[in-house]
Amino acid sequence: MGIRVGSRLSDLTWPALAEGQAPGDGQLLVVPVGSCEQHGPHLPFDTDTRIALALAERLAERFERIIVAPALGITASGEHQSFPGTLSIGTTAFEHVVVELARSALPPPELDLPSPFEAVLFVNGHGGNVVPFTHAEALLRSESRDVRVWHPQVPGGDSHAGFTETSILLHIDPDCVRKDCMVVGSTRRWREIATSVVEAGLASVAPNGILGDPSDANAIDGEEIFETLSGGLVERALEWFPLLGEP
Fold first, then answer.
1. Where do the domains of the chain lie?
2. What is the sign, positive or negative, of the torsion defined by CA atoms of 79, 84, 89, 94?
């Protein structure tokens, strides 16, 4: 086929993607999904997107039959709206975006439309997207589309802009971290603050926008966390998509 391993869809042309296409040659389209929301005074608005994209591209390095789509970077971030700069399209609109994107990538056979993709994997970096993703995935699979959503989980990790996310960014993109602005946020457990965050927004429990403590974040731990997440993604992708074969 006329594409390189781990290609970004945005770098390709349609003839390159179609070249040599034959039954059984379909690709897995991997869609990184993040957010455009505040991440405290020390991390950029696209923190979730950077992490999701890095994980998607690492996955693409392992398998030949993967194309990485442009990231979805403005999603459902209503709980962060009281912080200037946060952009959100809401859960309902985001759910529709996911459904229509996957339908576009995987048109039904009766339409006789060209499709280089056999399946779609969304790599989600933002917790606020979990509920709409759950609804969208169920609908798409009920339509016999091979669509899956993977949500990274870090056992014992903090929730937002704390040690976990800051350490990962210090590993994958250290220049974007404002180290002199790493301060402690709310360290209360999520179950204690979840209702307040949903009803009144994250600022009601963490005025600086941080859930956790990034002060000890470091690239070494960030690499370990990232590699663990990457390994989990590879394992799940192999389980879900036989077309990948072996890495």
1. 7-19+28-239
2. negative
Q: Are 65 and 29 within 8 A, CB to CB? A: no
For 24, the 3-state DSSP assignment is coil
24: left (phi over 0), alpha (psi -120 to 50) or beta: left
Q: How far apart are CA 36 and CA 49, in angstroms?
A: 8
Q: What are phi and psi of 55, to 5 degrees?
A: -70, -40
pLDDT digits (tens, 9 = 90+) for 126-141: 999 999 999 999 999 9
Judged by average pLDDT, the poorest of 19-23, 85-89, 103-107, 223-227 is 19-23
Query: pLDDT digit string (tens) for 216-246?
Result: 999 999 999 999 999 999 999 999 999 898 6
Nearest to 50 by CA among 147, 235, 177, 157: 177
Assessment of whether the complete model's pTM goes beyond 0.85: yes
Fold of 7-19+28-239: Rossmann fold (3.40.50)
- Which residue type, as a one-letter code, is found at position 20? G
Place of tokens 């339409």: 111
Which run of H or E residues covers position 66? strand 66-68
